[in-house]
Amino acid sequence: MTAYDERASLGGTPAYGAPPARAEPSVGDEPGARGDLTATAERVHRSVEAVIEGKPEVVRLALTVLLAEGHLLIEDVPGVGKTMLAKALARSIDCSVRRIQFTPDLLPSDITGVSIFDQQRRDFEFKPGAIFSQIVIGDEINRASPKTQSALLESMEERQVTMDGQTYELPSPFMVVATQNPVEMEGTYPLPEAQRDRFMARVSIGYPSPAAELQMLDVHGGASPLDDLQPVAHAHDILKLIDAVRSVHVAETVRRYTVDLVAATRTHPELRLGASPRGTLHLLRAAKASAALQGREYALPDDVQALAAPVLAHRLLPTAQAQLNRRTADQIVREIVQRVPVPDPSAPAWRVPGQQPPGVRGL
User: Fold this and answer.
1) N or C: which end of the chain has fewer CB within 10 A?
2) Are 361 and 297 in contact, with CB atoms under 8 Å apart?
3) Tens of pLDDT, residues 294-307
């Protein structure tokens, strides 16, 4: 029970809680189905954690982005497990996986595909590129030229590829997991803002604790744990989880709180570029996925607050003065979260005449 659940229960009326009763049950409403979905999410989480030791919050965020139908940018120094996290998530799910090693000579057609003239048919035939996969791992994405990086724009936002006037739909679920090194900038091309804004969240793994690093020596010392990693969920299981996340209820007060948080980034004196409306949508979707993973079918301000920095910080551009003061976008977002008023949990967000609020249901 969160602080908001507890405070609301004192008054007997949920503030942000369960949605109005539905005439038709949605995916995951039945107790047996909810149990299966919960077990699926936990299996994937444990499978990735078996490879990435001591970083449960990072694994949870990666799974949240997957279920929220977003894309993940992993940004950290070399050697902390960026690519391994992406590969562990991909191998834990029985779906199509492609890895793209971004290099300066990589071409857009290597990603999207190319039309080749077939001599026998006397016609052009489209050869799909590496983007035609359910999970795409883009390693060192900032080492490719801006022309090649832009090949991802349509696929990440619209989940399709247009080539020679023909549109090709991408498989579902579809997720891009990209890595980049923010320290070594020689021979790299910074991601344009349009590209960064298409990533739902950015995560930094960080160095492990001494205990986790010692355990890593035991687990990774002889062989890579990725070699023994087997899929623990199918693609259709992930689609069911995504459907369940879509049905998570978000009260009007929580939606307004989300908008207020994002709007505060656009007027902050230390930011020359605030978060976009796409950032608002991504924050709300991520909050719904987080609520579902915690066994709730309704989102709380807690979910929005916990995800504000990972979802919003990489979209923001601090001013020159803020950079001189060594102020980061993450610090500014956390200050905004502390400053923006949280909705009052004592006021009901909805009311169904003549009915008692339904019990808590969810994943």
Assistant:
1) N
2) yes
3) 888 899 999 999 99
Q: pTM of the entire structure?
A: 0.85
Quickly list DSSP for 226-290. Answer: GGG----EEHHHHHHHHHHHHT-B--HHHHHHHHHHHHHHHS-TTEEE---HHHHHHHHHHHHHH
Cis peptide before 231 (omega within 30 of 0): no
- Domains within the chain, CATH numbers bracketed: 32-247 (3.40.50.300), 249-345 (1.10.8.80)
Residue 69 and residue 217: Cα distance in Å, rounded?
34
Q: Which of 103, 90, 81, 75 is nearest to 134 (CA)?
A: 90
Q: How many Cα neighbours within 13 Å face the side chain of 271? A: 25
Between CA 312 and CA 230 the distance in angstroms is 33
| DSSP 8-state symbol, 219 | H
Report residue 130 as tokens. Answer: 């590496």
Name the one residue in this structure whose structure tokens are 């919960």: 38
DSSP-derived letter for residue 297 is: S
d(CA 309, CA 330): 6
Asked if residue 135 lies in contact with residue 93, where contact means CB atoms within 8 angstroms, the answer is yes
The radius of gyration computed from the CA coordinates of the chain, to the nearest angstrom, equals 22
39, 50, 221, 238 from 43: Cα distances, Å? 6, 11, 25, 12
The 10s digit of each residue's pLDDT in 228-277 is 889 999 999 999 999 999 999 999 999 999 999 999 999 999 999 999 99
Burial bucket for residue 85 (CB in 10 Å: 0-12, 13-18, 19+): buried
pLDDT tens figures, 289-342 = 999 998 888 999 999 999 999 999 999 999 999 999 999 999 999 999 999 999
Residues near 267 by beta carbon (within 8 Å), at least 6 away in sequence: 274
Write the DSSP string, 122-133: TEEEEEE-TTSS
Backbone angles phi, psi at 11, to 5 degrees: -90, -5
